[in-house]
Write a structure and sequence with these properties.
The chain is of the alpha+beta class. The protein folds into two domains: 152 residues, no CATH class; 101 residues, NE0471 N-terminal domain-like (2-Layer Sandwich), CATH 3.30.2020. It contains eight helices and 15 strands. Strands 1, 2, 3, 14 and 15 form a five-stranded mixed beta sheet that branches. It has a three-stranded antiparallel beta sheet with strand order 5-6-7. Strands 8-9-10 form a three-stranded antiparallel beta sheet. Strand 8 and strand 9 form a beta hairpin. The N terminus is likely disordered.
Length: 284
C-alpha cells in the first residue's frame, strides 16, 4: 500500500480515496477554506435560523424599561422586531465598533478586553433616529464611553444558534454512525474535483461536517503518488515528512517502524489535533 498525508485544517478529519494505495500530509493555505466558502456559500441557513431578513431589523426598548438604569443592571435588554433579547454588558462593551475601539480601515481591535472593568454597566440606552442602539457606559467615570450598535450586529448575536451560524456558516460538525453516513456520504469525480470550484466547495463542507468523503474515477496508471498529490494540492500545500512527499504503506513482519505494522496501515499522527489524511486503496 502507499500512503501520503497532508494537513488541510485541524477541522477536517481523514478522508478515504478509493484508488491504488497512497496518502499525503497536507498543509492548508491559510485562506483556502474561507475563500471557497465566500465564493460559494452553502444553500441557505439552518432551519432554526430561517432566511436572513430582506429589511433592516427594528430595535426598540422594552416597555417600562428604566432608561436611566438607576439599578445598573449587568445586562442590556432590547427588542429586535418585537422579540426581547438580553446581552451581557461586558460582551457588548467589548463589541463596540466605534473608531476608538476598532480601526475603521483594518477592523483591528484597538484595546484589550482586559482593559474593561468586570463590573461595567450601561448607564443609559437610547434608540437613535436611524435605528442604532446608543449605550452610554459607566466607564470611564470622568468621561463615559459611548457605543453605537447596528441592528444587524445585535441580531447576529441574539441567540446561541445565530452566533454559531454567523461564526460558522458551514454548519456544525456531525458525530455520525454507519447508518447516518450511508445517507450522507459524498462521492466526487476526480476530474470534476480538479476543475470545478463548486465541487471543491462541496467536498470542503463535507469534510468539515462529516470528516469523510470519497473520490472516484481516480486514474491508476501511475504508482508514484501523482494523482493523490494533485488532489491534495487542491486543498493546500503538501507537507513533507521524513517519509517524503508520498510513500507506500506496507505490512512488514517484525517491523521497526510504526508505519508498517498491523492492524493499522496508516502512520500515527505527528500533529495534535491530527492532520487530515488522503489515502488511496489498491483495487477499490
Amino acid at each position: 500500500m502507499r500512503c501520503s498525508w497532508r494537513p488541510v485544517s485541524a477541522l477536517l478529519r481523514p478522508a478515504l480515496l478509493p484508488r491504488s494505495a497512497l496518502g499525503v500530509l497536507v498543509h492548508r493555505r491559510a485562506l483556502s477554506f474561507s475563500q471557497v466558502l465566500a465564493q460559494e456559500p452553502p444553500t441557505g441557513p439552518p432551519e432554526h435560523i430561517g432566511p436572513h431578513p430582506t429589511i433592516r431589523p427594528r430595535l426598540s426598548l422594552p416597555l417600562g424599561a428604566d432608561r436611566s438604569f438607576e439599578n445598573h443592571k449587568h445586562e442590556v435588554t432590547v427588542e429586535i422586531d418585537g422579540e426581547q433579547h438580553s446581552f451581557d454588558a461586558l460582551f457588548l462593551r467589548d463589541l463596540c465598533p466605534c473608531p476608538k475601539c476598532l480601526d475603521p480601515s483594518t477592523k483591528q481591535k484597538l484595546f484589550n478586553t482586559t482593559d474593561i472593568p468586570d463590573d461595567i454597566v450601561a448607564d443609559s440606552l437610547r434608540i437613535k433616529p436611524k435605528g442604532q442602539l446608543e449605550v452610554i457606559w459607566s466607564d470611564p467615570e470622568d468621561r463615559p464611553h459611548v457605543s453605537f450598535y447596528e441592528p444587524e450586529v445585535l441580531l447576529q448575536y441574539s441567540s446561541p444558534e445565530r452566533k454559531r451560524h454567523f461564526r460558522n456558516p458551514a454548519g456544525r460538525q456531525v458525530y455520525w454512525d454507519g447508518d447516518m453516513m450511508r445517507e450522507n456520504i459524498l462521492r466526487v469525480d476526480y476530474k470534476s474535483f480538479l476543475e470545478s470550484e463548486e465541487v471543491l466547495h462541496r467536498m470542503l463542507v463535507q469534510l468539515h461536517r462529516f470528516g469523510l468523503g470519497y473520490f472516484v474515477n481516480v486514474p491508476s496508471e501511475n504508482t508514484d503518488g501523482t494523482e493523490i498529490a494533485r488532489i491534495a494540492e487542491r486543498f493546500g500545500d503538501i507537507k513533507r515528512t521524513f517519509y517524503g512527499k508520498t510513500w507506500d504503506v506496507k505490512s512488514v513482519p517484525q517491523s521497526k517502524n510504526i508505519a508498517y505494522v498491523q492492524p493499522s496501515p496508516t502512520c500515527g499522527p505527528a500533529d495534535n489535533p491530527q492532520s487530515p489524511q488522503l489515502l488511496t486503496l489498491a483495487g477499490a
